[in-house]
Amino acid sequence: MKRKQKLYIIKSLAPWMMEELIAFSHFEKFKIIFLRNIPEFYRNDMEILKKNGIEYHVKPFKFKFNVKLFILLKLLAIKNLNKFLGKQNFIWTLNSMYWFLILDKNILKNIQSIHAQFASQAAIVSFLIHKFYKIDYYFTFHAHDIYFNNRWFTGLVNNSINSFSISEFNIHYVKNHFKNLKSEKIKLSRLGVALPEKQKSKKYPVKKVKIGFISNLEEKKGIPYLLAAFLELHRNNPDKYLLSIAGDGDYMQMIKDFVQKNNLKEQVNILGKIRDQKKIDFYMQTDIFVLPSIRTKDDMDGIPVVLMEAIAYGIPIISTNISGIPEICINEYNGFLINEKNSEQIVNAVENLSSSERIYVQCSKNSLHLAQKEYNLVKNSKQKMSMMNWIEN
Question: How many CB atoms lie within 10 A of CB 278?
């Protein structure tokens, strides 16, 4: 008898997602469907997956008109007309139904269960596969897919075997914002990062203090508040602070303009998008990590992976009191929790950490402890696979 297989469906890749895939591949073989093309950025990672025996399919679409399937999908769409309401829901629904219709169904042969990332297209495609082919599915939801009126969310949860939240905050949030939810199906499954081989606490920075920021350069990251705070720090003590900014996105030009306008070229290092050894070097050289996330219209961070990465290197962190961030940035334990859109509190937090060796070293040790306890990628991935019955406990 042929062994039952598992399937992982992804719309668009992110670095943390790739890290989970690679972690999964060390415990069990499975198939992957990528609904969109894989950026060149992930070429080396794809080689690792291939070496680990993972079969993957990129946009495996083969249009073969199936009258029966088309009619059933049409009837399902009519029954779920409310899923089309709102621009985001409309796009997700059309994309998902189209992708499901043209998906090469041969990939589904002998599949026992599916895991999808985000309560959006990948999970909706999994739901449709479940409806028409009776294959069980799980999915993980985050922030982007729940902080608005996601009309698919309740149905996705209720038809799944289990759905996973990366934070306690998100569990409480969906219970309070989505009606008729079978909340017993929602389980906590934290993300994680690969812990450095030799973890050690940071040494107290005596002379120069290197502040680090890495993330997508977008509105919800609160970049203007970091820049304003750094300018104030520089004016208070011109020879003490340096800032490194890594990432790419819409705010890049604004950052460059700010640096030029305020003559900060010697103090601010703009790195662009980094990975592998450059990312390791970034964290190794960072003394204090700052992520001043803010709420935006229909969106905010969940528990940013960059905070997990920072504490894995023993870095004291400063971040904002929104969403699940207080679960990783614990005030006066491994850093300081501040109010959003508050540059003055960023300044105070940085000065508190950089002016007291006792506070700095203790926060560094506590960051390491929290990373090992809650955000170990290997441990968390193994636990998640066990919860999905992809491996034995």
Answer: 12
Cβ atoms of 325 and 307 within 8 Å: the answer is: yes
Give domain limits for the chain.
Answer: 5-192+376-387, 209-374
Q: What is the per-residue pLDDT for 275?
A: 87
Residue 225 to residue 81: CA distance in whole angstroms? 42
Predicted confidence (pLDDT) at residue 1 exceeds the cutoff of 60: no
Please give the CATH superfamily to which domain 209-374 belongs: Glycogen Phosphorylase B; (3.40.50.2000)
User: Comparing 277 with 198, which gets the higher pLDDT?
Assistant: 277
Whether residue 2 has pLDDT greater than 70: no
Torsion of CA 162, 163, 168, 173, to 10 degrees: -120
Percentages of the chain per state (helix, strand, coil), in multiples of 5: 45, 20, 35
For the domain spanning 5-192+376-387, the CATH number is 3.40.50.2000
User: In this predicted structure, what is the pLDDT of residue 199?
Assistant: 77
Fold match between 5-192+376-387 and 209-374? yes
DSSP state of 119: T
> Rounded to an integer, what distance in angstroms lies between the CA atom of residue 280 and that of residue 310?
10
> Going by DSSP bridges, is the β-strand pair 317-320/288-291 parallel, antiparallel, or unpaired?
parallel
Quote the CA–CA distance of 145 and 153 in Å, as a whole number. Answer: 8
Residues 6+ apart with CB under 8 A from 294: 219, 220, 221, 222, 225, 300, 320, 322, 340, 341
Q: Are 142 and 166 in contact (CB under 8 A)?
A: yes
E-assigned strand segments in the chain:
5-10, 31-34, 55-58, 111-117, 136-141, 162-165, 186-188, 209-214, 241-246, 268-272, 288-291, 317-320, 335-338
Token reading at 295: 């709420």
Who's near 80: CB < 8 A, 6+ residues apart?
Answer: 93, 155
Paired strand residues for 115: 8, 138
Q: Are 175 and 153 in contact (CB under 8 A)?
A: no
